[in-house]
Write a structure and sequence with these properties.
By secondary structure, the protein is α/β, with parallel strands linked by helices. It is built from 17 helices and eleven strands. The strands form two sheets. It has a seven-stranded mixed β-sheet, with helices on both faces. Helix 16 crosses helix 17. The radius of gyration is 23 Å and the shape is globular. The termini are far apart. 43% of the residues are buried.
Length: 409
């Protein structure tokens, strides 16, 4: 039996919401099991995950009793198609949702699903509520507003849902941004040069692109790229990337150094280190040295470095549009992160030469993990001075939410 796209999306969403599966892993597995409509399944899964609060607001307006998990997922799927997928006719969104109820042997609920979705279709009135409008928990909006101001939050909320921009970094050993753009366009990938990067505007399959196989580029967010630029690496530098996987910053560093010097790209897990190693080999970056290493524990076998990058594990609140379920994390679940982040930063400083440069970065928007960790480090170690720090907020054609601080010894 060939599964329908909506049934595949339904089963994937159940794993995400009720089995705590990661959206990207669950979706990749689901897509590997079907032949067609992969883009539609992806849009449904990511769309329902990122718009869950909005969808539940509309569903709960018209359902008074407690819903079975499977029926709530079907209603979310139907409501998402009605409210956010203009190319899906209302009749198809409703009828296919009713068919899905029958397909999973829950016929008893078919009339209710039909009635609720018709009411949502006739409603479509969004309340004046940022949490509902952008599907972000109230406590996260409150935290952001206190830390960055309500006006700042309102300025970036429109860009945390939907398809994020994708940027390619030209491997300058072989091509510059203009030449990479030409190569991608010749492979029917719509793109444009944006500063030193190439912004990709169309869908693509990396593994089928000749330019990717030949090592002409790697994918990296614009905000991450800015962080690496701030390191101001020079040819023949000795650089440590302490939490390097999946390797994007390592590759950019190596290319900016013209494949001279050495970059030690370390990470805690062997499979993640292998990802870096394969990427470096594809790009022809012989200056990259990979190894398994615990960033919180001092490794006396490592040399002293000119530059040390501590891109630490974080809550990920800056990359919500890439990992939509991150927004639903309980804030209490991340309260211990700053302690680990500070430990990594303090350990990273031990590998630095005199007059070296220390860079601390995260892909989150949370001052407790960002400015406050930097401040705690500087208070504890008077040998270091802050050169500058920067917070990037999500934007339509720009990078993700990101923080980096540059310190010198």
């Amino acid at each position: 039996m060939i599964k329908s796209a909506r049934l595949t999306a339904f089963e994937t969403l159940y794993k995400i919401f009720y089995d705590n599966a990661y959206s990207n892993i669950a979706l990749d597995k689901a897509l590997s099991d079907i032949d067609g409509e992969k883009a539609f399944v992806s849009a449904l899964v990511y769309g329902v995950v990122e718009r869950k609060i909005t969808l539940d607001y509309f569903i709960d307006k018209y359902v008074s009793s407690k819903l079975k998990p499977k029926i709530r997922i079907i209603l979310r799927l139907g409501a998402y198609q009605l409210l956010f997928m203009d190319k899906v006719p209302s009749s198809a969104a409703i009828n296919e949702s009713v068919n899905l109820v029958k397909e999973i042997k829950q016929d008893y609920y078919s009339k209710m699903v039909n009635a609720v979705l018709h009411k949502i279709d006739n409603d479509r009135k969004f309340p004046d509520d940022l949490s509902v409008e952008y599907s972000v928990p109230k406590n996260l909006i409150s935290m952001w507003s206190k830390q960055y101001s309500l006006e700042t939050v309102k300025s970036f909320l429109p860009y945390i849902n939907g398809r994020p921009p994708v940027f390619a970094v030209a491997n300058t050993l072989y091509v510059d941004a203009d030449e990479l753009s030409y190569e991608l366009l010749s492979e029917n990938v719509d793109c444009e040069v944006t500063g030193e990067l190439v912004k990709i505007n169309s869908g693509f399959d990396l593994n089928k692109l000749k330019s990717f196989k030949n090592g002409l580029f790697h994918i990296e967010d614009m905000s991450c790229y800015e962080c690496v630029k701030a390191m101001n690496v020079c040819e023949n530098d000795l650089v440590l990337d302490l939490c390097a996987a999946p390797g994007g910053k390592t590759f950019t560093i190596a290319e900016m150094m013209n494949n001279t010097g050495k970059i030690y790209a370390l990470d805690l897990y062997k499979n993640r280190v292998n990802l870096i190693k394969k990427g470096a080999e594809r790009l022809g970056l012989t200056s990259v040295i990979t190894d398994v290493n615990d960033a919180t524990v001092f490794n006396s076998e490592l040399p002293k470095f000119d530059k040390v990058l501590c891109d630490v594990p974080c809550s990920g609140f800056g990359i919500i549009r890439r990992k939509p379920e991150v927004r639903y994390k309980e804030l209490d679940s991340i309260k211990d992160l700053p302690e680990t982040q500070l430990a990594i930063l303090e350990n990273g400083a031990k590998y630095l030469k005199e007059n070296g440069m220390l860079i601390y970065s995260t892909c989150t928007l949370n001052k407790k993990e960002n400015e406050q960790v930097t401040s705690a480090f500087l208070n504890n170690d008077k040998d270091f001075k802050l050169k500058y720090e920067k917070t990037c907020f999500p934007s339509e054609n720009g990078g993700d939410g990101f923080y980096h601080a540059v310190m010198s010894r």
